[in-house]
Amino acid sequence: MNNPNGSQPNSSGAVRNNNRNLVNDSGNNNNGNGRRSNRSLGKADDFDQSVILQQSPVFSRAIVWAIVGVTTVTIIWACVAKIEEAIPAQGKLEPQGAVKEVQAPVAGVVKTIDVKEGEHVEAGDRLLTFDQTAAEAQFQSLQKIRESLLQENQFYTNQLNGANPRLVGQIQLRVPPEIISLTENRASLIAENRLYQAQLEGDISGVGLNPEQQLRLQSIVAERRSRVATAQLEVEQLSKQLSQTTVQLANARNILSVNQEIVRNIEPLVQEGGFARLQFLKQKQEVTSSQADVIRFTQEEQRLTLAIEQAREKLQNTISLSDTDVQAKMSGNEQRISEINSQITKIIVENKKKIREIDSQISQAKLTLKYQDLVSPVSGTVFDLKAKGTGFVANTSEPILKIVPDEGLIAKVFITNRDIGFLKPGMDVDVRVDSFPYSEFGDIKGKLVRIGSDALPPDQIYQFYRFPAEIKIEKQSISVNNGQLGEVALQSGMSVSVNIKVRNRTVMSIFSDLFVKKLDSLKNVR
């Protein structure tokens, strides 16, 4: 805007002068008001005069002081006022106790189902019933088989102890025919060995033998005695002959000695002619004959001695051969008995193994009969019910249903490893259930009760390192319209968002952190 002189008001001094002029002019209004009015009206047509309006300095000062005051109060408030610092985390509601997986204690067919999906049950309530027809029939069959095997083993044990194999017919056992034949053969071999033993001992009383065996023993003993008697008789006869021959030999030697003495006595007489020579020759012939008798009897004595030795050896051989033959037969029988015993023992062992297996099956059958009704182990809510109707075949390896215990729900969340620093059990937590909007239903108070000791590695669901944490919530339900419409119970599996209250911080510290971060970021600028 131009002044009346056509110059620019570019300095504060000019402005102040103009202001003073305006003030002075207004002060002189009383003295020459008429004159100025006339003068102004007279000059109005000559030119236009610009007017500069300036704000009052009081208002300016007020604005300045207001800004300073607000700034000061804001800074003081930022330094003094504190707000809650919270760490967010996400997770879901889970039962405080582990979900109970209810498995069938034994395999079976479901007869009736007494619960439905989502139904609440108490501990001990019947969940379902199994069909026991097949189990009862199996139990009875196993009992019969076990009893039969026990009786069979008792029979085999008695056979090993020497019982009569014909008892099998009396106790109605289903023993295989070949086993019956083995036991009968074994009994026959044992009886035959008793016969042989009595034969060796020469005992003809027949104690422990049946009549047939007694007759056989008597016949064998009689035959053996006959052969021994024959051999003994031969030895006796030869001994008598030897005695006679010995006597004859002694006589022959005496005769020879006499004849030789006669020859020696008459030989000088014959040389002198006092005795007939013919008579002398006859006497020498007698000597020669006597010598021949001595030689003959000597040879006969030797022959009889040898014959007696042979007869005695024959007698001994007769006795020895008989005993050896009996012992060989007994040894063969013992070997055969041992083989049969081994087979019977093997059968007993196999039967005992079968009995153990059957005992296990019987125990299983008893367990099946005992657990005809499947009851709930805890109070809770049924879910994931696999059996949809009767006839469902349950096994022991997979759960037939699950029960969420009534022990209360807890929030299980995951906290990033960068937010874990100030967290500790006991901190207050605001829990917001995602199924119920926070603006309408609010949140639930809780306490941080547990923090994992180590971070879990990333996986497909969580792409970051995280610490598991558990939060105990104060309520197990959400109020609808401040409780006017009742309470809605929380359910396991609901997703939640939580804010863990770490500490109270001043507003200034928050801004200072931002400033420090920005300042630190400038250090990394290249």
From TrEMBL:
Coiled-coil positions: 221-255
Question: GO terms for CC?
Answer: membrane
Renumbered residue ranges of the record's region Disordered: 1-42
Query: How does the record say this protein sits in the membrane?
Result: Single-pass membrane protein
**PANTHER family in alphabetical order:** MEMBRANE FUSION SUBUNIT OF EMRAB-TOLC MULTIDRUG EFFLUX PUMP, TRANSPORT PROTEIN COMB
Which family does the UniProt entry place this protein in? Belongs to the membrane fusion protein (MFP) (TC 8.A.1) family.
Q: What name has this protein been given in UniProt? A: HlyD family efflux transporter periplasmic adaptor subunit
